[in-house]
Amino acid sequence: MRIVILTGAGVSAESGLGTFRDKDGLWTRYDLAEVATPEGFARDPAKVHDFYNARRANAQSATHNAAHAALCRLQASAHDVMLVTQNVDSLHEQAGSRDVVHMHGALSGALCARCGDRWTAPLAMSPTDLCPSCAAPATRPDIVWFGEMPYHMDAIHAALLDADLFVAIGTSGTVYPAAGFVDIADGAGADTLELNLEPSEARSAFADARYGPASEIVPAWVD
Ligand code: BV8
């Protein structure tokens, strides 16, 4: 069976990484326009680096949970699985998953806004860091901000059109284009399943759903 999995912040919540839109979520404490847009970065790069430096430190001390481990087992099964994540942490990789499609980038990456070179981010980035290729002081986290094009969209789109099953796990279904994947897969004839703590905004688009903490419902579904 060809399966496309889309994960969101809910899959890492039990690893201690905060979600975005839940009570006490990141976007209730930070202004998204200031820290997660190219315009915000242009206005105050130090503030944006501080935001991502803190999240990078948090993510580095986090441990994957039973949901990440179950998805790794699914990838190792006979099924053909594309694992797409909106998360910028590396907990799927820490659990052993390979070829994870990071559509919103990764905290572990640095990107030169001038020449496009990419390299491994240091734990703390700063506006004075120079690009190792072109020496421009234009380094930024390799994160897809609002208003920017998410990565790997052609490959994801092709997999959705070819999928037998699309499963969204721990995502609120509010950020596009990821929120529209269920409609693409459904339109192409795939079965669709939502695994989440509670019904998401996109619940009505899914044929089936199971609710509870990801560390319980994902292993129960996989095994
Ligand atoms: C684009 C940065 C096209 C990384 C992120 C109006 C105005 C402006 C823009 C738009 C607009 N309308 C549409 C848009 C486009 C915009 C968008 O969708 N905006 C929304 C908010 C309206 N999208 C974009 O800009 C995207 N780009 O469209 O490009 C384009 C075309 C032409 C030219 C240029 C571009 C770019 C989107 C990427 C944004 N980057 N963040 C970072 O700092 O991390 S998005 C951010 O939201 C995160 O990446 C996150 O992954 C993503 C999705 O959130 P979720 O993962 O779903 O997290 P959330 O907190 O919302 O939900 C958690 C869920 O888990 C909940 O349902 C909860 O119940 C559940 N849960 C909690 N605990 C558990 C659990 N489930 C299970 N177990 C648990 N224990």
What is shown here, in short?
The chain has 2 domains: 1-15 and 64-104 and 149-223, Rossmann fold, CATH 3.40.50.1220; 18-61 and 108-143, 2-Layer Sandwich (SIR2/SIRT2 'Small Domain').
Could you outline the blueprint of secondary structure elements for this entry?
Layout: E1 2-7, H1 26-29, H2 32-35, H3 38-43, H4 45-60, H5 66-76, E2 80-85, H6 91-94, E3 101-102, E4 105-112, E5 118-120, E6 139-143, H7 153-162, E7 165-169, H8 181-187, E8 191-196, E9 208-211, H9 214-222
Parallel strand pairs: 1-2, 1-7, 2-3, 7-8, 8-9
Antiparallel strand pairs: 4-5, 4-6
Helix pairs in contact: 5-9, 7-8
Ligand BV8 binds near residues 19, 144 and 172.
Description of the molecule:
By secondary structure, this protein is an alpha/beta fold. The protein contains nine helices and nine strands. The protein has two domains: 1-15 and 64-104 and 149-223, Rossmann fold, CATH 3.40.50.1220; 18-61 and 108-143, SIR2/SIRT2 'Small Domain'. The chain has helices spanning 26-29, 32-35, 38-43, 45-60, 66-76, 91-94, 153-162, 181-187, 214-222; strands spanning 2-7, 80-85, 101-102, 105-112, 118-120, 139-143, 165-169, 191-196, 208-211. The chain is globular. It starts with a strand and ends with a helix. The site of ligand BV8 has 36 residues, from loops. It is found in: Cytoplasm. It catalyses: N(6)-succinyl-L-lysyl-[protein] + NAD(+) + H2O = 2''-O-succinyl-ADP-D-ribose + nicotinamide + L-lysyl-[protein]; N(6)-acetyl-L-lysyl-[protein] + NAD(+) + H2O = 2''-O-acetyl-ADP-D-ribose + nicotinamide + L-lysyl-[protein]. Its EC number is 2.3.1.286.
